[in-house]
Amino acid sequence: MPENNYFSMVYDRIGVIGAGGWGTALACVAAKAGRSVVLWAREPDVADSIIRSGVNARFLPGVALPQSIRPTSEVGDAANADALLIAAPAQHLRETLSLLAPFVADDLPLVLCAKGIEGASGLLLTEVLAETLPRAQIAILSGPSFARDVANELPTAVTIAARMDIAKRLQASLGHGQFRPYVSDDVIAVALGGAAKNVYAIGCGVADGLGLGESARAALLARSFAELIRLGAAVGGRPETFMGLSGLGDLVLSATSPSSRNFAFGQKLGQGETLHVLLAPGMPLVEGVATARPLVARATTWRGNADRYDDFGGSGWRHVTGFCARPTHEPTPWTGTQIDIPDPASATLRSLLAGKELSSCSSSSPP
User: Fold this and answer.
1) Which of 197, 223, 288, 358 is deepest in the core (most CB within 10 A)?
2) Is the domain defined by 9-185 classed in CATH 3.90.209.20?
3) Rounded to whole angstroms, how far apart are CA atoms 158 and 357?
4) Which residues are catalytic, by number?
């Protein structure tokens, strides 16, 4: 089909499932692209507040929403759409899809907009969708994007992955002046990149919180990216996808910015705060915490496939029970924190913690 034809076949009615900060920002995107938008909030008071004030004061305060967005607390109302953007948190995705199930028509595009791995099953979010609503069309939106930047119309680029004709229609439906989607059909790579980068961002935050310096953080980030490509190769993801927005782009943003919840969480761990405090009710959601352990478990099961793609040398692929390993010098309050991350990124961080140097990392691994 000629490219310009996709712009004449936009998905005009967009339902956004989840009125947190990210879902609200995506509703703004769709509305500013000229779409008819219904935004579903699980909490009726959030929907009522948006109707009264035009602002999502709980989850995206200070941002005036386009008047064309219609909030609702009735999930069936939002599901009556040409495409759905699913912005529920990763660990609540299955429950949300179950609520949607009675209202989802066959072949309806469902665009996953959260990032993570389901803790209970170890499934990528695309796999959860395929298992829960097998007749839906799977799509995923990911990339370096903070909700407030997007809602305030700061320039942002993301990846939309789906069957290519669907991806291009979604691109035409959501793209506008300051929001630029790129298309891909590499769904599994986009899903994995978005999930893994949250875990790596926590590790980079730990290094930063310990005061190990920017050079150490850069080393950990680079080793994380090398590992991500190996993980992706093991499941059939294309390396060029990880080198784009949903891989390297998202990793750089999440692993370097204090505005990243995962990076900020790691910083506080490194500075001595405890998980009990950081994960207390009312604290910001940090998807990387729940994703870390199943990511390591999946990396272990993928090892056989990964070995066929291992061009980097080194041992790697060891099951690490916690990247916050006990340092050889003075212990810190977060010693023993059980957040998992596979090698080589964890090997780099453990070396940095133990002696602030990289001598224990494999010399045959890439710089």
Assistant:
1) 197
2) no
3) 35
4) 197
